[in-house]
Amino acid sequence: MTDNDRPLAVFDLDNTLADTAHRQRFLERKPRDWDAFFAAAPHDPQLTEGVALARESAEECEVVYLTGRPERCRGDTVDWLAAHGLPEGRIWMRRDNDRRPARRTKLEILRNLARTREIRVLVDDDELVCEDAERAGFTVVRARWAADSAALKVAQEREGRT
Hints:
single chain; 162 residues; alpha/beta; five-stranded parallel beta sheet; 6 helices; 35% helix; globular
């Protein structure tokens, strides 16, 4: 079986694989400090449950990453994934100026991927992303192993930032 024949396991990053708790403070101030929030991402600890699930998924699936992080964070993101021993895989990121809600951008990408590949699972912490993906027929695992952040939820849905 070639990689193109394997189903996809699609993983979110923030609060699914990477623990963003140490950088939430940048979203809790007014105005939010997005540059500092994303600049601190390389220092995120891994979330053991999510990382284990990604490694396990790689046994049967091609693991890919779907994040609301802006494209300008690609280098840091690639380095972080490698440093934590996550499976190599394609990364879909938000265009730097795209402020649509995560549930819209992610569902659009999932539907595009599903045109040519089976998507075995989406693993994400954003409840609205998960609900919309399930309504669209995708199998979802809700990443509930990170601490909730009200500021991050607002950022994902209303500000289209992550």
